[in-house]
Amino acid sequence: MTADTLAAPRSPQVRAKGANLEKWGWIYMRASGVVLVVLIFGHLFVNLMLGEGIHALDWGFVAGKLANPFWQWWDILMLWLALIHGANGMRTIVNDYVTGEKVRKVLVWAIFVSSALLIILGTLVVFAFDPCNGVTTDSAFWDACQAL
């Protein structure tokens, strides 16, 4: 059989040794998609439906939420899953549609680097968030920060 022809549908396949990364990527997309639906709708419900609803969304609401370790980890899990899910989807699109090997490698590398950078920065924002950083005596948040 030449390189231009396809094997018969039921012929035995020669499989490379090692982990099947495409299979695990496929499984990750399905599992993370289900978890993301729960995380995102939980996030939207708490932020928009409970309490005063959308009218309660302000700096104090966000500061209070990010002061709670439960919500920090909820947001981190949502951030990590969404960015890795999106990056894996973009990698799949690049692998499917970009024909040049060198261009494909550069694009996949750029997706990896940008996703890693966003994950690092997002994680730092969530865990290093200080609502009183830079608040001065003439700020509207001065009294609230003094109470902390």
Could you characterize the architecture of this molecule?
This protein has a single domain (26-133), classed as Up-down Bundle (3 helical TM bundles of succinate and fumarate reductases), CATH 1.20.1300. With 148 residues, it is mostly helical. The protein is 67% helix and 0% strand. The protein has 5 helices and no strands. The radius of gyration is 23 Å and the shape is elongated. It has helices spanning 21-48, 59-66, 69-97, 101-128, 142-147.
Gross morphology:
elongated
Instruction: Name the CATH superfamily assignment.
Output: Fumarate reductase/succinate dehydrogenase, transmembrane subunit
Please state roughly what percent of the residues sit in beta strands, choosing from under 5%, 5-15%, 15-25%, 25-35%, 35-45% or over 45%.
under 5%
> What oligomeric arrangement do these chains adopt?
single chain
Topology (elements, then pairings):
Layout: H1 21-48, H2 59-66, H3 69-97, H4 101-128, H5 142-147
Helix pairs in contact: 1-3, 3-4
Structural descriptors:
3 helical TM bundles of succinate and fumarate reductases, heme, 148 residues, membrane, mainly alpha, SuccDH_FuR_B_TM-su
In short:
With 148 residues, this protein is mostly helical. It has one domain: 3 helical TM bundles of succinate and fumarate reductases, CATH 1.20.1300.10.
